[in-house]
Amino acid sequence: MTTTVNVATPGGHYPIHIGTGRLDHLHESVPADVTAIALVTNPTVGDLYAKRAIAALQKSGKTVITITLPDGETYKDWQTLNLIFDGLLQNRLDRKCLLVALGGGVIGDMVGFAASAYMRGVRFLQVPTTVLSQVDSSVGGKTAINHPLGKNMIGAFYQPIAVEIDIDVLHTLPEREISAGLAEVIKYGLIIDAAFFDWCEANVAALRALDPDAIRYAIQRSCELKAYVVGQDERESGLRAILNFGHTFGHAIEAGMGYGEWLHGEAVGCGMVQAGALSAATTGLDADSVKRIHDLVQAIGCPVVPPNLGTERWVELMQVDKKTEGGHLRFVLLPKIGQAVVQGAPLNVVRDVLHKTAVPVL
Ligand SMILES: NC(=O)c1ccc[n+]([C@@H]2O[C@H](COP(=O)([O-])OP(=O)(O)OC[C@H]3O[C@@H](n4cnc5c(N)ncnc54)[C@H](O)[C@@H]3O)[C@@H](O)[C@H]2O)c1
Ligand SMILES: O=C(O)C(=O)C[C@@H](O)[C@H](O)[C@H](O)COP(=O)(O)O
Ligand SMILES: [Zn+2]
């Protein structure tokens, strides 16, 4: 069974198809006027799934070339992005080509950015293969590469023509990647859907075990909630910033530790624990809710104690954030579970939270 969630933005709309075996149906998302297809992947995902993806794409009758990028967050950079352009130009792909991103969020973010820039914009299809990319990064059109000074600092808003989610491919993921992806799932409950947060608490074991019904529901609900937010505010002039809950802290961890040391989802999980503590100090989040956030992040298998970067280094890293305005840090904070606001916080309070969350809760 395949379910479809639609994403509607001012520039148009596209479907997210969620099901099993979608990898064998990729041709259904290839528009008739496409001249050639570039499948972009990495060696890990390519070895597992490129053959099937290529066979499916070839059913459209188009030529398919493959571009293989090195694997890892550390390669989400200019040099690796340029390998995509090299491959497209060497194979003389024209304006009517289609780029296909087969992989996790790193591949998806880079292929989307390449699609936004190649010949000033060509179409791209997202085929996310991690929990994180299926519930979050493949949807909504944020594309980017990292800069040594800050996460996702160079990029564009550029929507795919469709998202093809094959739940089966998750079974080859390492456990650590499943845990990291679940951090973005529980984020939606915290910012916009308290009942979904309750459901995540009740189903954490099933989610970690990739129980088919549980993981399908989590992916569908996450995509529905993200599609709703993106539909209201595609370019983050307001509401969309709530999707950044936990990310001011999380991105500082990723950049501060060196990209790839902590997984994005792990950093966001820990960042949500810190943002929960900051919410208690600023927007009145009650102690029971702070504990529920901590306990669920721990239960999905993500770290809850932040690395010791040094308080001033923490603040410096957090300032390199796209929500920063006029040098002032802004955070996504929770007055209660299921409701988020975006606002500044006094630096002495932020420092205090950095100290408090550095101590393990027993
Ligand atoms: N654009 C957005 O809205 C958005 C949202 C969230 C995260 N992101 C970005 O996404 C990135 C993180 O994505 P991610 O967590 O998917 O990491 P990732 O892309 O690095 O993938 C994680 C690892 O799993 C491997 N892998 C992928 N699919 C697999 C499969 N089915 N079986 C076995 N191994 C597989 C990859 O090769 C990689 O080693 C970060 O760069 C983050 O900034 C973007
Ligand atoms: O889609 C969004 O909007 C998000 O913020 C989703 C986040 O999970 C994601 O990590 C995003 O890439 C962060 O965006 P950034 O603008 O803070 O780099
Ligand atoms: Zn994220």
From TrEMBL:
Residues 67-179 form the 3-dehydroquinate synthase N-terminal domain. It holds the Pfam family DHQ_synthase. GO terms for cellular component: cytoplasm. Pathway: Metabolic intermediate biosynthesis; chorismate biosynthesis; chorismate from D-erythrose 4-phosphate and phosphoenolpyruvate: step 2/7. Its main location: cytoplasm. The chain crosses the membrane at residues 97-119. It is an enzyme of class 4 (lyase). Its EC number is 4.2.3.4. It catalyses: 7-phospho-2-dehydro-3-deoxy-D-arabino-heptonate = 3-dehydroquinate + phosphate. Binds 1 divalent metal cation per subunit. Can use either Co(2+) or Zn(2+). It is found in: Cytoplasm. NAD(+) binds at residues 71-76, 105-109, 129-130, 142, 151. It comes from the Bacteria. Keywords: Amino-acid biosynthesis, Aromatic amino acid biosynthesis, Cobalt, Cytoplasm, Lyase, Membrane, Metal-binding, NAD, Nucleotide-binding, Transmembrane, Transmembrane helix, Zinc. GO terms for biological process: amino acid biosynthetic process; aromatic amino acid family biosynthetic process; chorismate biosynthetic process. InterPro entries: Dehydroquinate_synthase, DHQ_synth_AroB, DHQ_synth_fam, DHQS/DOIS_N, DHQS_C. One of its GO terms (molecular function) is nucleotide binding. Belongs to the sugar phosphate cyclases superfamily. Dehydroquinate synthase family. HAMAP family: DHQ_synthase. This is 3-dehydroquinate synthase. It comes from Pusillimonas minor. The lineage of its organism: Bacteria, Pseudomonadati, Pseudomonadota, Betaproteobacteria, Burkholderiales.
